[in-house]
Write a structure and sequence with these properties.
Structural class: mainly alpha
Strand content: under 5%
Shape: elongated
Oligomer: single chain
Radius of gyration: 19 Å
Distance between the termini: 23 Å
Number of helices: 7
Number of strands: 0
Amino acid sequence: MDYNQAKSRLAPCGLDCSRCADYDSGEIQQISSRLTELLGNYRRLAAIKANTFPVFQNYQQFEDVLSYFSQASCSGCRGENVKCPINCPAQTCHKEKGVDFCFQCDEYPCDKPFPDAIENRWRTLNDRMKKIGVEKFCIEQDKKPRY
């Protein structure tokens, strides 16, 4: 993996957009689409199974969630169709500062107003990228669950 490949996957804050459930061409979207295709009209069988296995009484909810995942449409923080629910200042700040990632900025770590739940993660991810490099960091992230 080279730097540009890693950059295309990673948000400026360090989160891996490509592994997000909302990412438009990510693995979750692809697998969800494939599972939807494979299940086809399983709803008919789920109704029969619901008599013996109560979990199938909620099959419609499962289908709704699977459908949501399979229709993911966020381009990631570097794209044109950003749908990230996290209000992160890095989405625009990195452009203003002319850097790809926060850790590359002369002002890092800054006092931008990151949401509390994100600030510690933002520092941890950027510190790690700075220490081992963007490419190795991206490979390292592949080995971890996204959520």
